[in-house]
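Budget justification aside, the reviewers requested a transparent look at the raw inputs and outputs of the sequence design task funded under Objective 1. We therefore reproduce one unedited record. The lines immediately below are the structure tokens for a 100-residue chain.
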């Protein structure tokens, strides 16, 4: 468990689109078929009491790196996503919007 004011990533895994089962080759197509052009990335985290119960807004930035090119893959990088901690269920998507 993290300190009261901290959060920690506890698990990160890929899965075929729409599934919760870990798959190390999530875009493998059916036998003889082309590979899938998308897959799901599951990210799990835990938060300390202060953050987890504080309903604080935060932003999660996700960048995907193409290991072959050693460069970001813009098409697979959703960028910055607004989030919010919620004491009732632990997490909510769509926290306060960032202003520019």
């Amino acid at each position: 468990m993290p300190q009261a004011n901290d959060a920690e990533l506890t698990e990160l895994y890929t899965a075929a689109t729409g599934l919760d089962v870990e798959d190390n080759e999530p875009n493998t197509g059916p036998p003889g078929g082309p590979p899938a052009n998308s897959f799901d990335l599951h990210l799990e985290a835990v938060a300390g009491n202060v953050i987890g119960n504080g309903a604080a807004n935060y932003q999660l930035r996700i960048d995907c790196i193409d290991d072959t090119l050693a460069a970001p893959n813009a098409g697979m990088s959703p960028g910055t996503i607004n989030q919010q901690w919620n004491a009732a269920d632990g997490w909510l998507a769509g926290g306060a919007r960032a202003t520019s």
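Residues 53-100 form one domain. Residues 96-100 have pLDDT under 50 and may be disordered. Computational costs for records of this kind are itemized in the attached budget.
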